[in-house]
Amino acid sequence: MSHSANSRYASDDAKWAAVAARDKQADGEFFYSVRTTGVYCRPSCGARLARRENVAFHADMAAAERAGFRPCKRCKPDEGAQGARHAALVTAACRRIEAADVPPTLETLANEAGLSPHYFHRLFRAVTGVTPRAYANARRAERVRDALPAASSVTSAYYDAGFNSNGRFYAKSDALLGMKPAAFRAGGKAESIRFAVAQCSLGALLVAATSRGLCAISLGDDPDTLVRELQDRFPQAELVGADTGFERWVAQVVGFVESPRIGLSLPLDVRGTAFQQRVWQALRDVPAGETASYAQIAERIGAPRAVRAVAQACASNTLAVAIPCHRIVRNDGAVSGYRWGVERKRALLSQEREAQEAREAPAPGDTVTKGKR
């Protein structure tokens, strides 16, 4: 407790005034209990104000519980502490997974956390957004991606990453790497990527595609910078200029960026972890003209506490507008955080809102006279 807070709530009269005012700034500085209900609360609790003679004050939750009071079910004064404990347990489990040569079993992780496997599994998924197994697979994928360029062979890279058989690794390799392991090891060598740069109302637009589909839609001010970023992503890939067929793809993408509501029928080469894939699919389910918060996306994918991980997945998106991370805003509706610039995000949202309003506006002659049908 800070000295200033200590002074502000030093007397019982000051504490009572904070409780009567439901002062949120007093939360965590002290707790109060109500003799007639047998519960203890935060100062800001929204429950009906108790009579002063039935109220006592406590320095912390432990003191309130020693006095025989239980946590209030409305303001849940113990929830913050429990949430911190749970986050610490999951963080420790993540570090354990990352450090292990062979991913620990669910039972091992649960035992180390002092929880049942079923409860630990639910807790881990609620905090991270993925299961322990999916988290372990994502870490192994990172190890493979980091190890392949310098590895003496593909085999040594996947064994070092924790895959115990080449069959299991190759079964997952395309989704993990977006190309064959040998090609990834060579920095994308033998991967052919068609690309072109065009202009749209938002500036320069780079469109790139592998044989699987669009792998990049990037926005920027400088076309050369966009091309260099693509080269850095695939340093050894063969970058091929647009042919007539690909120019038609580019034209479709430009039209789609200018008017996202028309949709994009081109295939996408989406590369990411299982969690990122879930987030990106949820983004694609947000209609043009609407927005959602990071917290709402986390709820929709069944991981309400993984808000930060959702934000990171949005930042990792390489397909502007096709995976519409521009429709994700803060809880207060404020526009922030966009890989291709906040001003472009505002422009996209404004453009989509205007299109929505124009579509919903009554056509000339459709006005209904009041009182008549």
UniProtKB/TrEMBL annotation:
This is 6-O-methylguanine DNA methyltransferase. Residues 105-187 form the HTH araC/xylS-type domain. The keyword DNA damage applies. Its cofactor is Zn(2+). GO terms for biological process: methylation. It comes from Pandoraea vervacti. SUPFAM superfamilies: Ada DNA repair protein, N-terminal domain (N-Ada 10) (SSF57884), Homeodomain-like (SSF46689), Methylated DNA-protein cysteine methyltransferase domain (SSF53155), Methylated DNA-protein cysteine methyltransferase, C-terminal domain (SSF46767). Residues 351-373 are annotated as: Disordered. Residues 351-360 have a biased composition (Basic and acidic residues). It catalyses: a 4-O-methyl-thymidine in DNA + L-cysteinyl-[protein] = a thymidine in DNA + S-methyl-L-cysteinyl-[protein]; a 6-O-methyl-2'-deoxyguanosine in DNA + L-cysteinyl-[protein] = S-methyl-L-cysteinyl-[protein] + a 2'-deoxyguanosine in DNA. One of its GO terms (molecular function) is methyltransferase activity. Keywords: Activator, DNA damage, DNA repair, Methyltransferase, Transcription, Transcription regulation, Transferase. It holds the Pfam family DNA_binding_1. InterPro entries: Ada-like_dom_sf, Ada_DNA_repair_Zn-bd, Bifunct_regulatory_prot_Ada, Homeodomain-like_sf, HTH_AraC, MethylDNA_cys_MeTrfase_AS, MethylDNA_cys_MeTrfase_DNA-bd, MethylDNA_cys_MeTrfase_DNAb.
